[in-house]
Write a structure and sequence with these properties.
single chain; Beta-Lactamase; 6-stranded antiparallel β-sheet; 27 strands; 30% helix
């Protein structure tokens, strides 16, 4: 059985026609790709992508792309394929030149940090003098921290080890990691004391004065001896009460947009750092160790005894603070400070990664809810239209990435009368899907003989009285008998088009507000006489509000122009003409609403 791929082993970068991007991890084999349908791992919102377009299989350690029926063919780097072994950087497209692109990427191989640590340990053992290993041991702590970023250990374990390393470098008595919430307020996440021993976070009362100074300066506050510090810091109540002599406060910031999540290991060893390392490194070890040193070890002219500032334009979101203190005065060498800075960057990277993972989980849960909502809505739509003696019908619903709640149906009210409905529920997710089921229940009441005005009036009052539902719906409902007499009710929905005798008009504008907005709203029924050959074109606002990459809408006039001259066109052909016009206009731009059409043609029955 082929090995299953691991998360981060391979990813897909999707570039849409509007240049927006999305990343998807390949976590299943086969990994299915298709247009906005349930059952696909990657749902591509492009009308030119087939519902079952492609699959990526993990076979013998390789990723194999397979065409599963993409209309017009599947392409890799511009060449049509049936099966293709993917390589890093391959570009997958779906036919038209302006369709979206999917770029296949492999995660980079792990850096050889264990080998470096082993070499460093050997060099330390062979050097003379017991004190020569001090700088090297601290450097090992930094390299171990870099390894932690790629480990699979639990988050709390990784953060605890990072804090232990910071305590070891500074020889502090204890350390505290404070994490910022969504408002920027700090709360203790974990605490440690020297000797790698855990503490309760609320057992440490950090100096608020030192925290405020570091946050105002947007940089570290490193005080080696509080007896010689600023008077405000000397007089701080928590410092006096706890008899503290040294305090280190390091704000943690996410990497800015465009920066990497963690420092890349630099190929350059800072020239003026060599004298600090020289007593600790064998001469032939320096070339091996240099490529693995973090750029945070480079000299920082601003890293002076009191504080260092950071350009605001070079910082990302504020994540939290590393706080260290001691009852003994400290003496930090230049190397100590640079290693401490590097550890802080690693800690920020871990917190930032954890935050991104949490957001990704929330996004996945939200997408799962939307997927369930789409499945509910799709299950409610008619699968096939039955034969009606006086009507010809065609309808389609193309779901977007969100679940908007579009719904349509055509159903017999009596042997002589046929009802139809198109509706658009506000909002997204399960709430919209559940209101769609309520609408379907209302239609059952109409088939039982109840009046449409009463049914929708009761539905309106129910939604208004139950404010926790917080949903409303626009809808157009009609009933046509064999003689062409039509009763319709328009509740805030876009007026359908009428195709009659070579002309296109919108005579159904009379109506009321959407159901669920105003408790006292009345929903009156209006009569209209259809003539044989008349065609009704009902649509959701996802049709007229479809946008291209520049944000321009398809619009009502453009739809009217498309319908002009289509009086005799078969309904399924007319439906395809409308969808093709929308596709050409949007040019693959991602849509935020469903596209729904319902076409009804009246024909005189014998």
């Amino acid at each position: 059985m082929p090995d299953q791929p691991a998360i981060d082993d391979a990813v897909l970068e999707i570039i849409f026609a509007d240049n927006s991007r999305r990343t998807a991890y390949i976590t299943d084999s086969p990994f299915l790709i298709g247009r906005g349908e349930t059952g696909n791992n990657l749902q591509v919102p492009d009308l030119r992508v087939s519902r079952q377009s492609a699959a990526i299989n993990r076979e013998a350690g390789q990723y194999v792309l397979q065409d599963r029926g993409q209309q017009g063919g599947l392409f890799v780097n511009g060449k049509m394929i049936v099966l293709h072994v993917l390589r890093d950087g391959d570009v997958i497209t779906f036919g038209p030149a302006d369709s979206c692109e999917v770029i296949f990427r492999l995660a980079p191989a792990d850096l050889p940090v264990p080998k470096i640590l082993n070499s460093a340990g050997s060099a330390s053992g062979s050097s003379s003098g017991g004190s020569s290993s001090g700088g090297l041991n601290k450097l090992n702590l930094l390299l171990e921290a870099t390894m932690l970023l790629r480990s699979q250990l639990p988050l709390e374990s990784v953060l605890g080890t990072m804090l232990d390393h910071a305590i070891s470098v500074t020889q502090a008595d204890r350390g505290l990691l404070l994490e910022a919430d969504s408002t920027g307020a700090l709360r203790g996440r974990l605490a440690r004391r020297s000797g790698r021993l855990p503490l309760q976070p609320d057992s440490i009362v950090p100096s608020q004065t030192a925290l405020r100074m570091a946050l105002e300066q947007h940089g570290s506050t490193v005080t080696e001896d509080l007896a010689r510090a600023d008077r405000d810091l000397q007089a701080a109540q928590s410092i006096v009460a706890q008899q503290l002599r040294a305090v280190v406060v390091i704000p943690l910031y996410a990497m800015p947009l465009g920066g990497s999540a963690a420092p890349n290991l630099s190929p350059n060893l800072a020239p003026d750092l060599a004298p600090n390392l020289a007593p600790d490194l064998a001469p032939d070890l320096a070339p091996n160790l240099a490529p693995n040193l973090s750029p945070n070890l480079a000299p920082n002219p601003a890293a002076e005894p009191h504080a260092r500032g950071t350009n605001a334009s070079q910082r990302g979101d504020f994540l939290g603070v590393v706080y260290l203190d001691s009852r003994r005065p400290a003496a930090f060498s230049r190397l100590d400070r640079q290693i401490l800075d590097a550890l802080a960057v690693e800690a920020a990277s871990i917190l930032d990664n954890a935050r991104l993972v949490e957001r990704e989980l929330q996004r996945q849960l939200f997408e799962q809810e939307l997927r369930i909502a789409r499945e509910i809505q799709q299950a409610l739509l008619p699968r096939d239209f039955r034969e009606f003696p006086h009507l010809t019908v065609s309808g389609v619903n193309l779901p977007s990435l969100t679940a908007s709640g579009d719904y349509y149906d055509v159903f017999p009210v009596s042997p002589e009368r046929t009802g139809f409905l198109i509706a658009d529920v506000s909002g997204k997710g399960l709430g919209a899907a559940l209101l769609t089921t309520i609408l379907q229940g209302a239609l059952l009441g109409i088939t039982a003989g109840a009046e449409a005005s009463g049914i929708f009036g009761n539905l309106n009052r129910f939604l208004c009285q139950h404010t926790e539902v917080d949903r409303y719906a626009t809808l157009f409902f009609g009933i046509v008998d064999r003689g062409g007499r039509m009763e319709f009710l328009n509740a805030g929905h876009p007026s359908p088009f009428l195709l009659r005798g070579g002309e296109v008009s919108r005579p159904f504008t009379e109506g009321s507000v959407p159901v669920g907005l105003i408790p006292d709203a009345e929903f009156g029924v209006v009569d209209f006489q259809l003539q044989p050959g008349d065609t009704l074109v009902l649509f959701s606002d996802g049709v007229t509000e479809a946008m291209d990459a520049e944000g321009q809408m398809f619009g009502v006039p453009r739809l009217e122009e498309v319908l002009s001259g289509q009086q005799e066109t078969a309904l399924d052909v007319m439906q395809r003409i409308i969808l093709d016009s929308i596709t050409r206009f949007t040019r693959g731009a991602r849509q935020g609403d469903d596209i729904t059409l319902l076409l009804i043609r009246y024909q005189e029955s014998s």
